[in-house]
């Protein structure tokens, strides 16, 4: 995608009790989890609660600063998750210095002022997306449903204005989880652990990756 991997890369989170193994700083966390009845019900409740507060000054400001992409391409949740991780960390990545001609740099240039739906349409029409999706799938970020009996989905946690924000292209808007207390990695991990508690029978279907400093 045009990111300098000597500066930032993805690290598997082997255990939520071993977060000290992840290099600092952490820029984003990608979560792979099963789509279950419990999760869907929780998400609907969460969206309904935030909908009531979307016009509040603080939340509205966070949403306006968030780079959100709707997912309209089937089984591309891994690719969308990676794009959410990168696009909400542009200032830290220095992409203009790394590779001005990369897909990601061009994507950001063309979509800086577009809506989430317009960005989705852009990706639908871009031939490079299929190649990126194939590449991300090989790296473990694609749809895993063909390998299991469970529908699997990817989402991204990022930090916006000192708040933990969840980006999921299937949902209507980014979910503002709250002000970060311990750190992006720590707070995202705590949120993931609470989601696992709702899915005791499917805990093996959860895995997470941190987008952080290379070393």
Describe this entry's structure for a reader.
- It is a single chain.
- The protein is globular and about 45 Å long.
- It starts with 7 loop residues before the first strand and ends with a strand.
- The model is unreliable at 142-150 (pLDDT under 50).
- Strands 1-6-2-3-4-5 form a six-stranded antiparallel β-sheet, with helices on both faces.
- It is of the alpha+beta class.
- It contains nine helices and six strands.
Tally of DSSP helical segments: 9
**Strand/helix succession:** EEHHHHHHHHEEEHE
CA-to-CA gap between the ends?
20 Å
| Computed Rg | 16 Å
In one word, what is the shape? globular
Strand order of the largest sheet: 1-6-2-3-4-5
Low-confidence stretches: 142-150
Q: How many β strands by DSSP?
A: 6
Helix content: 40-55%
Mean pLDDT: 88
Could you tell me the strand content as a percent range?
15-25%
**Major sheet size, sense and barrel closure:** 6 strands, antiparallel
What structural class do helix, strand and pairing data support?
Answer: alpha+beta
Defining key terms:
41% helix, 9 helices, 215 residues
Q: Topology, please?
A:
Layout: E1 8-12, E2 26-34, H1 37-51, H2 57-65, H3 77-87, H4 90-93, H5 95-98, H6 103-111, H7 116-125, H8 127-138, E3 152-160, E4 163-167, E5 175-179, H9 184-197, E6 207-213
Quick summary:
This protein has 215 residues and is an alpha+beta fold. It has nine helices and six strands.
């Amino acid at each position: 995608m045009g990111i300098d991997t000597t500066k930032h890369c993805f690290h598997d989170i082997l255990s939520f009790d071993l977060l000290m193994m992840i290099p600092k700083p952490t820029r984003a966390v990608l979560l792979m989890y099963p789509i279950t009845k419990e999760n869907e019900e929780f998400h609907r409740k969460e969206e309904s609660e935030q909908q009531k507060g979307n016009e509040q000054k603080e939340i509205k400001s966070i949403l306006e600063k968030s780079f959100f992409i709707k997912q309209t391409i089937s089984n591309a949740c891994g690719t969308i998750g990676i794009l959410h991780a990168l696009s909400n960390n542009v200032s830290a990545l220095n992409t203009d210095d790394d590779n001005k001609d990369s897909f990601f740099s061009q994507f950001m240039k063309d979509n800086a002022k577009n809506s989430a739906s317009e960005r989705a349409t852009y990706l639908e029409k871009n031939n490079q997306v299929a190649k990126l999706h194939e590449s991300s799938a090989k790296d473990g970020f694609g749809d895993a449903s063909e390998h299991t009996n469970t529908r699997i989905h990817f989402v991204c946690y990022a930090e916006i204005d000192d708040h933990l924000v969840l980006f999921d292209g299937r949902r209507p808007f980014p979910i503002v989880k709250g002000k970060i207390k311990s750190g992006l990695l720590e707070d995202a991990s705590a949120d993931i652990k609470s989601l696992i508690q709702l899915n005791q029978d499917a805990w093996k279907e959860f895995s997470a990756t941190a987008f952080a400093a290379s070393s």
